[in-house]
Amino acid sequence: MSRQLLSIPYNMFVGARGQRVGMDAYFWEYVSDPFHRLLMVRRAELLSLEPLGLQLPRRIDHLKQLDDVRSLASSPPETSNRRPSLWRRLLSLIIPPLLVEEGVGGGREGEKMFAWALALELTRMELEPSGEILWYNLEVDENCRPLNDKLYATLYRRDGRFREHLTTLLCREKR
Asked: How far apart are CA 9 and CA 65, in angstroms?
């Protein structure tokens, strides 16, 4: 079984109270749903100082990412009037909605609400670019499926644009 390690660059930001977060600077534009881009935000502690695998280039400017966050925070997703069951509401408090399979934890509507709440929180943090780049090292199998990260694995399964780009990237690198 052939595995490959991809090193994804993360633009780093510092909040008004010293919080440090990074945003995926390579796949950001390759995720179809803008709300799902917000789920590619990670605390600095979860990122690496050094790339350990195939080093991907930075494809998006940190200012564009901040604009995207502000834009999403100012436009709440549309929701249906249907009230979720008690079970779904409880489950959505425990498990991030994108990681719950369709029909279990609130579905796509719950994912968008979670991402919108995250956008609001990131806006309240008053983030400023730090100019630093950290790395997330993602392991993928021979079929280009992410192995060590549930978020990227879920995007691979559900987002055709993301999957197509990841597959094309790895096929190009194998030549």
From this structure: 13
Q: Which letter, b or e, does each residue of 91-108 get, where b requires 16 or more Cβ atoms within 10 Å of its Cβ? A: bbeeebbbebeeeebbbe
Q: Cα-flanking dihedrals φ and ψ of residue 104, to 5°? A: -105, -50
Sorted by sequence, the CB contacts under 8 Å of residue 166 that are 6+ apart come out as: 27, 30, 140, 144, 146, 156
Stated length of the chain: 175
pLDDT for res 70: 95
pTM, two decimal places? 0.81
Asked if residue 20 lies in contact with residue 49, where contact means CB atoms within 8 angstroms, the answer is no
Question: Where do the structural domains in the chain lie, given as residue ranges?
Answer: 4-174
Q: Which two tokens stand for residue 40?
A: 């590619």
Give the residues of the chain that fall short of pLDDT 50: 100-106, 175
